[in-house]
Amino acid sequence: MTLHKAPAAEDAYVPSERRIARECYRRARTRRATAIAATSTLVVGAALFLLITNSPGWTRTRETFFSAPYARVAFPQVMEGLWLNLRLLAVCGAAVLVLGLLLAVARTLRGPVFFPVRALATAYTDFFRGLPLIICLLIVVFGVPALRLEGVTTDPVLLGGGALVLTYSAYVAEVFRAGIESVHPSQRAAARSLGLSGGQALRFVVLPQAVRRVVPPLLNDLVSLQKDTGLVSIAGAVDAVYAAQIIASKDFNYTPYVVAGLVFVALTIPMTRLTDWVTARMDRRRAQGGLV
């Protein structure tokens, strides 16, 4: 009896001429689109450059806002003040997340016995979302010391940070609440059917899903908080903005403000790109069915 052996190896795949032509066409279109985008960007950039530099007041504007000597003087002091902004971001960001989550949970508690808690949480979020941050800062920074309460700090950094926490926790609470309410009620019902209490279902089933869903908007709020830490300068705290203001007030040259603004932009862009990457990643996982 003769046994027929299978081929030792499969024939290598050879794409058809039509597929090769289609891929060549796609690559050509990509190169063409890239070239057009680069050319249009250069044209627009050159037009803006010529428009600005040929304006009648450009010479004076360049000396007032883009002076290299003032930038060299301002940069070290702005960076020293930026350390305060970064510490405020770290401490206030953590406090905002904790307080916002507690407020969101309080607003989603069920049962008539929790009505006072829900009402207080709702009043808090409505009030501080409607109150402008600058007014909240002024009231806290100047109003709290005026009460002359014993044991209450008068440090403008702590008071300014407290005002940031009060305002941003209201916004973050609404983000968390939206995430909690986006979890289907069947998830909670399934957890209860397995013997979990209401609190356990919220902690182990609802909150993990809710937090994953609201990561992108939370990162956006942190980006905004990073920029708004500069507002504590109105209380006299020497951060990056106030350091720039001190230098600018000496000779009425506003280059230090431009330096401080560029420093904040340099910090914000990475966080913004991280937010975009996390959002795109979660969208891909949700489209593939990998995210509940």
Give keywords.
292 residues, mainly alpha, 11 helices
Count of alpha/pi helices: 11
Order of helices and strands: HHHHHHHHHHH
Give the overall form.
flat
Let me know the largest β-sheet.
Answer: none
The end-to-end span amounts to 58 Å
* Overall radius of gyration: 28 Å
Structural class by helix and strand composition? mainly alpha
Low-pLDDT parts are none
Question: How would you classify the quaternary structure?
Answer: single chain
Average pLDDT level:
86
Strand portion: under 5%
Q: How much helicity do the residues have?
A: over 70%
Task: Describe the secondary-structure layout.
Blueprint: H1 17-53, H2 58-65, H3 68-107, H4 115-130, H5 133-147, H6 156-182, H7 185-193, H8 198-213, H9 215-228, H10 240-251, H11 255-287
Helix pairs in contact: 3-4, 3-6, 3-10, 3-11, 4-6, 5-6, 6-8, 6-9, 7-8, 9-11, 10-11
